[in-house]
Specification:
The complex is a heterodimer of chains A (351) and B (265). Chain A is mainly α and 351 residues long. Chain A is built from 14 helices and 2 strands, in the order H-H-E-E-H-H-H-H-H-H-H-H-H-H-H-H. In chain A, helix 5 runs antiparallel to helix 6, helix 6 runs parallel beside helix 9 and helix 9 crosses helix 11. By secondary structure, chain B is mainly α. Classes of the chains: A mainly alpha (351), B mainly alpha (265).
């Protein structure tokens, strides 16, 4: 589920950074406003708890395999959406820093996919609706399962759309979605089970750990959430449409090759239709240029992305030069490690 | 995430505490240069391979000058590889159009490009953390404008990581001693176990908070680091950015290759 940098274009990564950064800022303000003064260490400990919880596996009933908790929904149930979003974001940041689990450029995407959907969509729209005020055991289980599945499916859809919008993977939307969604349905069920058993234990052992937090959590209605969702969708769609259209030829060609013409037109209309709706009049056609109005940061690079013409000379020299540079880089590593460790490395930057 | 990861995390923490020229460079400089590095690497067209190679200099320089053991980083990169591999590996199947003069199918080129980018971006990110350490990095992020609450959350999370995971590890060990080896927990046991860990952690947070409040904690983690941006830091930023821009505009590997083939011919 964690996206890697290698599959994200700077435009998509930057957009999602902006979105997630904005959400973090909003949540930080909310948390500061509703600050119970012990909330800070509580959030830190719960973040650490998520890491520890991911070490502990349980056997999935009815199957031979085992799974573990993801934690997004559990955090939201314990802390409320705003604080939980911050905790999820911090967990993902540490995972990206220390475990290379999801990249830095992809961090915005990952925070959005794994934080926004459980905290601001699945929790208020599914969990609270189903669980009600103090629902019975059955309602709590149904709420946890439903919310976990909803959150993970939306997150998986986010992964698919962001990958597609980046245009680096050749996977067509339908194939990728058909791979991701069933897997995440299963993961969502496991996550729901794990969340449900822990929540039901806490409900029995120390209900105030949930209720107190729920009261401190959100009581604000859904409008801000829906507005945020709409803005995010518009941003994602906008970035998506403009980048997905970078390689319509390759994408269409591969879909045609794989799935045949008839299906192509259907799936194509689905994806493109949606993107086009947001995009408005901007034509999605092969051999188009970027419209000047669409320009944003990083745009000069995008322009170079139309099929680069490679001539014989440059590609041979490319291979030779690439290999040589590789050797040089290795040498530099050895030399830097041995001889020049005492100096600062500025001399190297021009190498 | 397994128990072995925790040993790894401890190692990363130790690496981050070292004192080398790279470690001494301001965290803000390293963080922003690394981010710029990743953005530039990902901005190349999808079939680009050779022009990406010169970018290896950045992580190589960080890791070598920071005295970070290669084996350690390499293992982490391998562990992280499956997702990028899995998604990228479809490119050769979907894109068979011959590309370039050598007639390599475009899918293989873009797959190679994805692998190289993966190596570069993951390596750079790991090198950044290993050469900076979480505390300096967090403080640097705070000074770069990340909301205080979030920075404090990051640092708290990091501080508690070792404590809570120790606790979890102890619980896990006691479970293993009482049950058949290698068999995962049943769901009925899992809930109470994890719930107990959760409540214990929350209690600990409460105790820690009281102890901190008694020592004058007011919602911020104070740092003793120098806040000023030195000449070396500026040089670091300007030097690397110049290199990135040059390597983005000109295909340096290609240029070197042209030069060599011309000399040899």
């Amino acid at each position: 589920m964690h996206m890697a940098d290698a599959l994200i274009s700077p435009a998509v990564g930057g957009t999602m950074w902006a979105v997630s950064g904005g959400l973090i800022a909003v949540c930080a303000r909310k948390v500061k406003q509703t600050m119970r003064d012990n909330l800070v260490p509580m959030m830190g400990v719960l973040g650490a708890f998520i890491f520890a919880a991911q070490m502990i596996n349980f056997s999935i009933p009815g199957t031979g395999s085992s799974g573990h908790l993801g934690g997004g929904l559990l955090l939201t149930v314990l802390l409320g959406p705003y604080a939980a979003f911050l905790v999820i974001a911090s967990v993902l940041t540490v995972q990206a820093f220390f475990f290379a689990d999801g990249g830095l450029l992809a961090l915005g995407c990952n925070i959005f996919n794994l934080g926004f959907f459980p905290a601001f969509v699945a929790y208020p729209l599914v969990y609270r609706m189903v669980a009600g005020g103090r629902g019975g055991a059955f309602r709590n289980w149904a709420a946890a399962l439903g919310a976990a599945v909803a959150g993970l499916l939306l997150g998986a859809l986010g992964v698919v759309l962001e990958t597609l919008a980046s245009g680096i993977s050749e996977l067509p939307f339908v194939t990728f979605a058909a791979m991701m969604l069933p897997i995440h349905l299963a993961i969502g069920l496991v996550e729901g089970l794990a969340t449900a058993v822990v929540v039901s234990f806490v409900t029995r052992a120390r209900p105030e750990a949930l209720y107190a937090v729920q009261e401190a959590g959100m009581r604000r209605g859904l409008w801000p959430v829906l507005a945020g969702l709409a803005a995010a969708a518009a941003l994602l769609g906008g970035a998506g449409s403009w980048f997905a259209s970078t390689h319509p030829d390759g994408l269409e060609w591969s879909i045609a090759k794989v799935t045949g013409k008839e299906e192509l037109s259907g799936s194509d209309a689905g994806v493109r239709g949606e993107l086009a709706k947001i995009q408005g009049k901007t034509a999605v056609l092969p051999d188009y240029g970027f419209k000047p109005g669409e320009a944003e940061a990083g745009e000069p690079e995008a322009e170079a992305e139309s099929w680069p013409a490679v001539s014989a000379g440059t590609s041979l020299s490319g291979i030779v030069g690439g290999l040589m540079t590789l050797v040089l880089a290795c040498l530099a590593g050895v030399v830097l490690k041995g001889g020049f460790a005492g100096r600062t490395e500025e001399g190297r930057s021009g190498a | 995430m397994g128990v072995a990861d925790w040993i790894d995390l401890g190692q990363m923490d130790e690496l981050g505490r070292m004192d080398t020229p790279v470690h001494r460079i301001d965290a803000r400089a390293k963080a922003s240069v690394t981010l710029a590095f990743i953005v530039v690497v990902m901005s190349f067209p999808r079939y680009e391979v050779s022009a990406l190679v010169p970018f290896l200099f950045y992580p190589v320089a960080l890791v070598s000058l920071g005295r970070i053991p290669c084996r350690h980083i390499a293992r982490k990169i391998l562990v992280a590889a499956p997702f990028a591999l899995a998604v990228g590996a479809f490119n050769p199947f979907f894109d068979r159009q011959p590309h370039g003069a050598l007639g390599v199918p475009g899918g293989w080129l873009s797959f190679a490009s994805i692998l190289l980018r993966f190596l570069l971006t993951v390596w750079a990110a790991l090198a950044l953390v290993a050469c900076t350490g979480m505390n300096r990095l967090g403080a640097g992020l705070g000074r770069l404008g990340v909301p205080r609450v979030f920075v404090v959350q990051l640092l708290f999370l990091y501080r508690y990581l070792f404590v809570v995971s120790d606790e979890g590890g102890k619980m896990l060990r006691s479970v293993e001693m009482r049950s058949e080896k290698g068999r995962p927990l049943r769901l009925r046991a899992y809930g109470p176990l994890l719930g107990t860990l959760l409540l214990r952690s929350m209690d600990r947070a409460e105790r820690v908070y009281r102890a901190m409040a008694a020592r004058g904690f007011e919602g911020e983690i104070r740092e003793l680091e120098r806040p000023s941006f030195h000449f070396e830091d500026t040089l670091f930023v300007v030097g690397w950015l110049t290199f990135f821009i040059a390597a983005r505009v000109w295909n340096l590997a290609d240029g070197l290759g042209l030069l060599l083939t011309r000399i040899l011919a």
